[in-house]
Design brief:
mainly alpha, 2 domains
Length: 75
């Protein structure tokens, strides 16, 4: 086989490897963030306290439901 064919195969394998790696990493991160959301009720409560608000359970649940709805809306 000539050198140009080997170079073509190497470049093609590199492109396929990058594309496959990108989509596999993207899928992994989507699943990870779905299982481990970045903000939970304790974090939200701490943020509200830092802003000077007194968080009630009702308000915490409303905010968490709004965040979940917005997250589902994007998909």
């Amino acid at each position: 086989m000539s050198t140009t064919i080997w170079v073509f195969i190497a470049v093609l394998a590199l492109i396929v490897g990058f594309a496959g790696g990108f989509f596999a990493a993207r899928k992994y991160m989507e699943n990870y963030l779905k299982k481990n959301p970045p903000i939970d009720e304790n974090m939200l409560k701490a943020m509200m306290l830092q802003m000077g608000q007194k968080p009630s359970e009702k308000k915490l649940h409303q905010m968490m439901n709004a965040m979940k709805a917005q997250n589902n809306k994007k998909k």
